[in-house]
UniProtKB/TrEMBL annotation:
Positions of the UDP-galactopyranose mutase C-terminal domain: 176-372
Domain of life: Bacteria
Similarity comment: family membership: Belongs to the UDP-galactopyranose/dTDP-fucopyranose mutase family.
Parent sequence residues shown: 375 to 773 of 787
EC number: 5.4.99.9
One example GO MF annotation: UDP-galactopyranose mutase activity
Name the UniProt record assigns to this protein: UDP-galactopyranose mutase
Keywords associated with the record: FAD, Flavoprotein, Isomerase
CC cofactor: FAD
Natural source organism: Sphingomonas floccifaciens
Organismal lineage: Bacteria, Pseudomonadati, Pseudomonadota, Alphaproteobacteria, Sphingomonadales
């Protein structure tokens, strides 16, 4: 592939530039090479650069921001190339850190699930049950009694089926979780760790927000703009459209930060670690709005996609057209989700042992530590990892 270098225009914006032959003439020495310009790599790079280290960031994609990358589509609307990313966190440290690089647009995410010809709140709450069953539930006690009559106790709770069945019973489990999960993961919920469906609570009240975190907001100018500011540091150089394997030897460095898939780094020595992929279908429709809320989930197994997201709800943008993304789960394609189950964790642990033995390499992020982390968790992990690494690498003079 063509080598692409990043350059800054005079507004500090990063632009990808396809290089002339032989660029760059003489690769310079860097203290640290960072593989990946997503949350993990960019936060590591910013922290290391601010500690005085010279950092080279490389990403094989032709853009920064990793899976959080957003861009304007043909209709001029901001869309998320790799599926909808909604920021939420309970960590003031993570929120304050990112706030150095962006303003925020307050946004609380809401999701409806398509069940038959109805759209009902997801996570399941009192409204959901009243709409589905005409149950006339008036209080939290009513809901708890309704659910208790259906719940099938499971002990111990191990799988993603157990979590739901033990709380809401088999019928609601099948309506909302079984088909969606089988599509999303290509596995039955009984084959997945309980942590997967435990991400989605069941509520006795009428709170219809998807998240209840303290901080819920979208970067006011988008994720890509926030990453441009993160990476805009005199000690950071950026190479885009370049795979680590192509340049590992050409660019000397004392330390490596790797945020790609850990099994790939080790040449799949113990076999492939499973990651789930998605195919995104971006569409623009000639109408101002198409959905009542940002995301509609399709939990039935017959519908090939899992959800449709309409970006205007996230961005507050207006205009005559609207853009949406359909998510089609797939075994093939870019690695998006580590698949949480015991046998995969065991395989990851074997790679982790290799990683620990690799003295001059730090593994961080969702793919490199094989954790189903949200953005804020990756930022928290990167901040903690960077603190340790700076102590190790930075000389006192570097500040
Ligand atoms: P990534 O963003 O995957 O970045 C890794 C980068 O490394 C990539 O850009 C890749 O190209 C590059 N790379 C890998 N290997 C190499 C190599 N050999 N050479 C060069 N470059 C390499 N989180 C939330 O908090 N809220 C959400 O709503 C949310 N929605 C999501 C929706 C979807 C569909 C997906 C897939 C994820 C979602 N997430 C969400 C999770 C979020 O995307 C991740 O937590 C976050 O992006 C992880 O950052 P990262 O830097 O670890 O990995
Ligand atoms: N899930 C489900 N039905 C839903 C929503 C979620 O079965 O309507 C399950 C599914 O297994 C999904 C998991 O809960 O992968 C976590 O959902 P979340 O919305 O957190 O997934 P993500 O946004 O990370 O794709």
């Amino acid at each position: 592939g063509a080598l692409i270098a990043a350059a800054r225009n005079n507004h500090g914006k990063i632009e990808a530039i396809v290089s002339p032959d032989g660029w760059p003439p003489e690769p310079q020495h860097h203290d640290v090479m960072v593989v990946g310009a997503g949350f993990a790599g960019s936060v590591m790079a910013e922290r290391l650069a601010s500690a005085g280290l010279k950092v080279l960031v490389v990403d094989r994609r032709p853009h920064i921001a990793g899976n959080a990358y957003d861009r304007r589509d043909a209709a001029g609307l901001l869309i998320h190339q790799y599926g909808p990313h909604i920021f939420h966190t309970n960590s003031p440290d993570v929120f304050d850190y990112l706030s150095r690089f962006t303003e925020w647009r307050p946004y609380e995410h809401r999701v409806l699930a398509q069940v038959g010809d109805q759209q009902v709140p997801m996570p399941i709450n009192r409204t959901t049950l009243n709409l589905l069953y005409d149950a006339g539930l008036e209080s939290e006690e009513d809901v708890e009694a309704f659910l208790a009559a259906r719940a099938e106790p499971v002990d111990p709770i191990r799988t993603s089926a157990d979590v739901v069945v033990s709380r809401v019973g088999r019928e609601l489990y099948e309506t909302f979780f079984r088909g969606y999960t089988r599509k999303q993961w290509g596995l039955d919920p009984s084959e997945l760790d309980k942590s997967v469906t435990a991400r989605v609570p069941t509520r006795a009240d009428t709170d219809d927000r998807y998240f209840t975190d303290t901080y819920q907001a979208m970067p006011a100018d988008g994720y890509t703009r926030m990453f441009e500011r993160l990476l805009d540091h005199p000690n950071i150089e950026l190479l885009l459209g370049v795979d680590y394997a192509q340049i590992r030897d050409a660019y000397p460095h004392d330390h490596l930060v790797f945020t790609g898939p850990i099994d790939e780094y080790f040449g799949h020595r113990y076999g492939k670690l499973p990651y789930r992929s998605l195919r995104f279908e971006h569409r623009t429709l000639p109408q101002p709005q198409v959905q009542r809320v940002a995301t509609v989930n399709y939990p039935d197994e017959a519908t090939p996609y899992t959800r449709i997201t309409e970006y205007k709800h996230l961005t507050g943008e207006t205009g005559p057209a609207t853009s949406v993304t359909y998510e089609y789960p797939s075994a093939e394609g870019d690695p998006y989700y580590p698949i949480p189950r015991a046998e995969n964790q065991a395989l990851y642990k074997r790679y982790e042992a290799l990683a620990i033995a690799e003295g001059d390499v730090t593994f961080v992020g969702r793919l490199a530590t094989y954790r189903y982390y949200n953005m804020d968790q990756v930022v928290g992990q990167a901040l903690a990892t960077a603190r340790r690494l700076v102590r190790r690498l930075a000389t006192p003079m570097d500040g």
